[in-house]
Amino acid sequence: MAKADQKDSCFGLIGKNISYSFSKAHFTHKFATLNLMNHSYENFDLRSIEEFPELLRRNRELKGLNVTIPYKEAIIPYLDSLDKKAASIGAVNTIKFAKDGLQGFNTDAYGFKKSIHPFLKEYHKNALILGTGGASKAITHVLKELGISFKKVSRKPIGNQISYSDLNKKIIGSHTVIVNCTPLGTFPDTDAKPNIPYEYLSPDHLLFDLIYNPEKTAFLSAGENKGTTICNGLKMLEFQAEKAWEIWNS
User: Fold this and answer.
1) In the 8-state DSSP scheme, what is residue 156?
2) Percent composition of the chain: helix, strand, coil (DSSP 3-state, to 5)
3) Residue 90 in contact with residue 141, Cβ under 8 Å?
4) Do the domain assignments include residue 196?
């Protein structure tokens, strides 16, 4: 058996300001449960994506990485190949260190689909996606697969996107799935929430927040106060993490 201090299979998370990370606790517990004493999981907080090559040089024992905000799109030029789904989505949250180089995958889509599916009703035909970053791309991909039409909401809309000021009673009423892909409300800034007209929400609405810390964000609480169904991002993270582990070991 490997010695406890022999960490020759290292995995980790790259992002910015990620001390709150779910992934480190999840995989550390997983390795302990499986008695994988030579496995470790570390947070790699990068001030900019340009630090990524140096990270690789300093950590040659790396076997796999997760990627979070704000690098899910910026990491792509540093990879040697993309899985078909990651290429279609245009965002990567999982990197496999393969013999032929760094391979990019997206397990966010898998996690989101698995976690939202039990809450969907027949009348959930239209969705609003709050935010336009890398995480929102996976959500877009899944909603297309599910046959749910959507509008993206942005502070600086381009193309077919709409702005928060465009949101009114009619739009909120006709879009009964609302997914928060912004970081607003993440610990420690727990009072923040997307600027939408919550007064127009109804019990027909489903609010899904990709944030998991706190368990009930201000966004979800505001929805719950109007009788909506709510779901946070914890199950999504668990599902995507297990899919990443499957990829790293395939």
Assistant:
1) S
2) 35, 20, 40
3) no
4) yes
Judgement on whether residues 152 and 218 belong to the same structural domain of the protein: yes
- Asked whether the bond before 157 is cis by omega within 30 degrees of 0, the reply is no
- Give the span between the Cα atoms of 96 and 143, in whole angstroms: 26
| 102 plus 21 within the same structural domain | yes
214 contacts 22 by C-beta, under 8 angstroms:
no
Q: What pTM value is reported for the model?
A: 0.91
Q: 170 with 151: CB under 8 angstroms?
A: no
User: Residue 100, SS3?
Assistant: coil
Residue 178 belongs to what domain range? 110-235
Which residue among the candidates 24, 72, 96, 137 is catalytic per the annotation?
72
Tokens of 214: 């706190």
Maximum alpha-carbon separation in the chain: 63
Give tens-digit pLDDT for 3-49: 334 457 999 999 998 877 889 999 999 999 999 999 999 999 999 99
Active site includes 72? yes
4 within a domain of the structure (yes/no):
no
Angle between helices 108-116 and 134-146 (to 10 degrees): 50
